[in-house]
Amino acid sequence: MSFTSIAFLCFLMLGLLVYYLVPGKWQWMVLLAASWVFYYSAGWHGFLYLAFTTISTYSAGLLLGKLNKARSQLPPEQKKAGAEGIKRKKKWVVACTLCLNFGLLFVVKYYNFTAEALHLPLPSLNLLVPLGLSFYMFQSIGYVIDCYRGKYEPQRNLAKFSLFTSFFPQLIQGPISRYHELGPQLLRPHKFQADNLKYGIQLAMWGYLKKMIADRAAVPVNTIFGDLEAYGGAFVAIAVAFYCIQLYCDFSGGIDIAIGAAQMFGIEVTPNFRRPVFATTLTDFWRRWHITLGTWMKDYVFYPMSLSKPLGKVGKFTRRKLGGKLGKVIPTSIATFTVYFIIGIWHGANFRYIFFGFWNGIIITGSFLLSGPLIALRNLLHIQENSLVHRWIGRARTMLIVFMGRYITRAPRLLVAFSLLWKTVSTPCLYQLRDGTFMTLGLKALDYWVIGIGCIVILTLEWFQEQGTPIRKTLEKKSVFVQWLCIFLPLLILLVMHILGGEYISSEFIYKQF
User: Fold this and answer.
1) What is the arithmetic mean of pLDDT over 6-24?
2) Given a cut of 70, is residue 395 above it in pLDDT?
């Protein structure tokens, strides 16, 4: 059941109606039933994977809760020895849970790729990747690790925990929520509030408008990448630029719909984007893009690795042998490369995704190593760190790096990405920009206007937000008519563009496959 389907809109309206009609103590049951129906509609096979992850992480949470309780009840004379024994048991519980779930993820997504890459004589498996597998698995594993750390008491009701793992607005493409932020909200009664409905619809409509832009931007991307020999380097660069627009509007639009749908039920979901176009460094970009995945990696991979004993020993050795900055950066770089390797392979079983992860790791590590010379150059040019010039240079540099990275993720293969980068600078074929080729890419002039104006509107609103202007609070000061106009105007635009779009067909969300 796609977010862009009429079936989903009917499903959402029916769910809201039932949710607010039943007593508050039963509302979570309505959400659970709706979530199961939503996911089951994609096929019963995927539902089995969801059930496996839910039951395994729920059981691990209970075991960890019992071990935490046993540790707190140890008599003083057994505190040290007993705590060490319990800690070992807790590590085994977490390790087994990780192996079970990530083992399942490996078999489903990476088994065939690994066998082919290593030339292993293994039979291939024709397994369909269930919707949102890595999203709900990461969310559930985060819950287990938090239980290990004693951050909160585990949920003892399996049905209530199932709602956390399967909450339908964020099930397919995130955000990746934490239990202490989302879990209590799902179980609390929520009275109907017009503001929740109004703001939820506004955000969802904004998401649908972004999706409309993304689907139109996808047309020239698919046309050019479908016949790369027919286009020069300039049009390859144009295709990558359209792909940047498609990817951002598609993913952030889907997240807006998810967060808006959740808000209609009175539930606040963690934001997943914070104006990445205005990032001044690549590190800053990843703090703004897919925020919940980045914070998940930081809390459950980067910091545990950086603070681990093995990397501590590596740090001491490198500082002793290499000294200074280089000795300090190597342990951090190992953790950084591990994180971006995981982020890369998370996107798909392909060497181009692995290289994409290393590409980001190389740039971020290199930026840290070159920070001294860059500061000296900035001082030489008399550019202040907080100046407007410095910020815009940083933004332009970051967007160029991101743009080059999109060659890697959009090309069918890694070697093709390198050849396309070379083609862009070596044979641009600029004559194609003025010979009418634009109108052979599958879009009408109206579609180009929609993409252009849409991008201007998005960038303008995000620019005001970047300057600290609260769009929603500003809107609250307007009349009720203006507030509801902001809902119906996007809806009218969507309807008009659907009628004028002719053969235009809405596509699935890109991150749905991850």
Assistant:
1) 93
2) yes
